[in-house]
Amino acid sequence: MSRKALIVLLTCLLLVGGSLVALVSCQSGSGDINSEKAKFDTPTKAVITPDPVDAEHAFVFVLNAYTGTVSVIRVSDQKVIWGKGDKGEDPVLGVGDFPKDLAISPDGATVYVTDTVEGNLYAISSGDWAIESFAIGFSGGRPKVDSEGAVVWLLDQRGRRLVPWDAQTHELGNEIVLEHEPFAFDLAPDGSAIYVTTLDGLLLRIDGETHAIDAQYQLVGTPGEVMVHPDGSEVYALSSGPPRMFVLDTATGEERTLELLGIPRNLGPSPDGALIYLTNSDGYLYVYNVALGRPCGASATTPEFYDKGPQSDTTISTVEVTDCITQTLSWKLIYDQPNESWIVRSIRDEGEHDEKVDTQSLRADEDRRYVSDYDEVSFTINSGERWSSEGDRFVFQTDAGIKPIVVGRMPDSVVTTPIPDTPEYHYIFVVNTGTHNVSILTSVEFDYDETIN
Fold first, then answer.
1. What pLDDT was estimated at residue 48?
2. Is the CB of residue 411 less than 8 Å from the CB of residue 433?
3. Which residues pair with 406 in a beta bridge?
4. 46, 52, 174, 436: most buried by Cβ count inside 10 Å?
5. Alpha carbons 303 and 288: distance in angstroms, whole number
6. Residue 82 per-residue DSSP state
């Protein structure tokens, strides 16, 4: 890291709840173009270069809803190389008066932008920044690019249809007519299905070959954004009033509806797909852990305590787990039959420590409550039948997820990409519509004491 970058890093850290958090407005600093101008103006949607060949060719594209421009952040140094500028006075990436949404091709070479007035589709080249405009005959569409980069699907909300646009011939194909008014959609990565949320509370599955609706699911509240997991295993649909996240297992058809807080706005995956980031109107970024199957801190429901050992029968009761614990902690309870005592151990980082040995009589063990050193978990040992240590060993997992992160006002899109020098970690870019900025975080340790601005 350069001396200049380190100075920027240290001056842009924000102390929140005892932890260092990045809350960064890209409006400060200078870029390659329009360096004296504001970098964003009512930013809403964003896309990021997928699988960049190198750090210099990785960009975040941010849509400025009311200035009709696209801002561009270069990932390697977090510099805004294209700002929102002033049309007619500055060089800008102009995309109509009121752009609606954007999508990016799988190779990152082209960004497609739709508008809400003129009925055009704009194609921005990330190589030479040239812009082409194509008349598609309707406005307000929402674009998605298929996995081959050959077709740009356009959701015509007012026209209640999905329309394919050929990226080579620039012609519209056969439309898919929808009986319900759609709001958002996403494509399965293998092209097997298209998932659409509708304003009357449904999630539709459309077969990728026949283009027929072959399944529909009832959502709770007013539907919002929808996203297919990068490996196609799950589909996530947000809704508000009440706030919920619908989760569909595409292999088994199992459905789950999770309670959330506030008004969920958008979502995006981590590069490895292990986490799903959720933006919310309350100004927080929530993290859905795919393995745990829930977002930390997004619900008042106490998380379950995961029993990885034999059934505990009545030995353990009143188990409580603190939400949003960042480390993994396992517990083992062993009854030492010869010495008539309990041994309670916590295991962290593959090593045992914090051993607690109860040397009191059996009767003293009854209704005894144990609380871990970091308050991750507490439980009561009941009276009852005691087994030998080989037969009565319990392991519980207390990895309870990642604490919600403060970002800006009214956050919308969230995109991620691996950090070039340490690809096991990733950058998280959050577009904040209400504060006209972009928060840039890293996944290092998930304690947010390391940030890149």
1. 98
2. yes
3. 284
4. 46
5. 13
6. E
Phi and psi (nearest 5°) for 163?
-125, 125
Write the single-letter amino acid at 351.
G
Q: Which helix (H) or strand (E) holds 5?
A: helix 3-11
Comparing CA positions, the residue from 217, 175, 212, 170 lying closest to residue 194 is 212
Residues forming beta bridges with residue 153, ordered by sequence position: 144, 164
**Lowest mean per-residue pLDDT among 142-146, 250-254, 396-400, 437-441:** 396-400
Residue 163 structure tokens: 């329309």
Beta bridge partners of 77: none
SS (H, E, C) 290-306: CCCCEECCCCCCCCCCE
pTM comes to 0.78
Q: Is 393 exposed, middle or buried (0-12, 13-18, 19+ CB in 10 A)?
A: middle
Do residues 396 and 306 make contact, with C-beta atoms less than 8 angstroms apart?
yes
Q: Partners of 413 in the beta sheet?
A: none
pLDDT of amino acid 401: 72
Which residues 6+ apart lie within 8 Å of 345 measured at CB? Answer: 331, 332, 334, 352, 354, 355, 356
Nearest to 315 by CA among 362, 380, 224: 380
Q: How far apart, in whole angstroms, are the C-alpha atoms of residue 115 and residue 93?
A: 14
Model pLDDT for residues 276-328, shown as the tens digit of each residue = 999 999 999 999 988 878 888 776 555 555 555 555 455 666 677 666 665 55
Point out which residues pair with 102 in neighbouring strands: 113
Give the tokens for residue 191: 């092209």
Q: Is 45 exposed, middle or buried (0-12, 13-18, 19+ CB in 10 A)?
A: buried
Which H or E run contains 245? strand 244-249
> Which residue has 């009852």 as its token pair?
384
From CA 347, how far away is CA 363, in angstroms rounded? Answer: 27
Q: Residue 206's CB: how many other CB atoms inside 10 A?
A: 21
Most distant CA pair in the chain: distance in Å? 86
Print the SS3 string covering 117-141.
Answer: CCCEEEEEECCCCCEEEEECCCCCC
Q: DSSP E strands: which ranges in 322-419? A: 330-336, 341-348, 351-358, 368-371, 377-381, 394-397, 405-406, 411-419
| Residues with Cβ within 8 Å of residue 288, at least 6 apart in sequence | 236, 245, 267, 275, 276, 277, 278, 294, 295, 298
Give the H/E segment covering residue 425.
strand 422-432
Give the CA count within 13 Å in the CB-facing half-sphere of 202. Answer: 14
Two tokens, residue 290: 């795919």
